[in-house]
Specification:
The chain is mainly beta. 9% of the residues lie in helices and 37% in strands. It starts with a helix and ends with a strand.
């Protein structure tokens, strides 16, 4: 039989764990949490980064079905969102975006989330089939408490083919009273602080390409940046956004996600035509303004777009929504001659 002191300690254990995680997150040196290593961030290099004999795909899965298992850790990180501007964010596995999750139609997926944050966290998937206990929402009670772990179960169906987002749905910095039926934790804060990534589902009928490029567009408000609103691509603003290199005539599939959580975006590549990989809609970045000239992406929408690299030269990709280029949502695309 436990004595009174043991019973008291047992009842306070969840509170003690929570307080410990808060202090650990606030006081632990960055090096122990895989934070920024002090080296200035460099633009991510995508596309043709070296010689290759086969297509460079984001998800190069063998034929046949499988149970695919992924391990994610919700953790804080220091992140250079703009040159010399480092903020603390929340992540899946220490980076923005988190790891890309790959599946083939017919696969089952098991995603295990371990939570090292001082707030509840969750994994919510778009595009996959799941039961309510894998929804990753507060009302379905499918979140992970601080210090806990949970496995979510999904299935890739025929209508899952394409590019989808996954994200947290419950994390928030400042707790608000929960009134059943009236309020839920803010679902967008985890996204704004960096807790998102891509799910790619293939079925083997995809049009052949030389490269695939994944770009996740998002907005980060002043409560996170402490320096105004930023419009980010893969978690950073220009000139730290990805630099894309292609060889003349190479075909690329852009897998584009607007993770939000608030703003709508569009996407274009100067001097190039984009064609929707699923419905053949054509977007021409050099046509007149009364025609469609950019990919439109509302919050938490996605798309796969094909493009053939034009003549060698320097180009840009960007969002043309008013103010978004100035807030950082643009990048460089270079086309090099075929003999390089």
């Amino acid at each position: 039989m436990m004595d009174d002191s043991s019973m008291i300690f047992s009842g306070q254990a969840p509170i003690i764990v929570f307080v410990f995680l808060v202090l650990f997150e606030l006081l632990t040196p960055s090096i122990l949490l895989d934070f920024n290593d002090g080296q200035p961030a460099e633009p991510e290099q995508l596309g043709h980064t070296g010689a290759h004999d086969s297509p460079e795909l984001l998800c190069n899965l063998p034929a046949g079905n499988d149970v695919r298992r992924y391990e994610l850790v919700a953790q804080a990180a220091d992140w250079e969102i703009a040159p010399d501007h480092i903020i603390q964010i929340w992540t899946f596995n220490g980076s923005v975006p988190g790891p890309t999750i790959c599946a083939r139609v017919g696969d089952r997926l098991e995603i295990t989330l371990t939570n090292r944050l001082s707030t509840i966290a969750s994994f919510h998937a778009h595009g996959l089939a799941f039961d309510s206990d894998s929804d990753g929402t507060f009302l379905s009670n499918s979140f992970v408490p601080p210090g806990g772990s949970r496995t979510y179960y999904f299935e890739a169906l025929p209508d899952s083919v394409g590019t989808w987002a996954y994200h947290d749905s419950v994390a928030e910095l400042d707790k608000e009273p929960f009134l059943h039926g009236l309020t839920i934790p803010e679902s967008g804060e985890g996204i704004e602080r960096g807790m998102y990534g891509a799910i790619i589902v293939v079925d083997g009928t995809e049009e052949p390409v030389d490269h695939e490029v994944l770009l996740l567009l998002g907005d980060v408000g002043p409560e996170v940046t402490r320096k105004g609103s930023f419009e980010v691509i893969n978690g950073r603003v220009a000139p730290l956004t990805p630099e894309i290199t292609l060889v003349e005539g190479e075909k690329v599939r852009f897998r584009i996600i607007n993770v939000g959580p608030n703003d709508a975006h569009d996407f274009y590549v100067s001097g190039h035509v984009l064609e929707n990989d699923h419905n053949s809609q054509v977007i021409d970045g050099v046509t007149t303004t009364d025609e469609m000239w950019s990919v439109s992406l509302g919050s938490l929408t996605f798309g796969d777009w094909l493009m053939t690299a034009g003549e060698a030269g320097e180009y840009s990709y960007a969002c043309s929504v008013s103010g978004h280029i100035e807030a950082g949502m643009q990048g460089r695309l270079k086309v090099i001659p075929g003999d390089e």
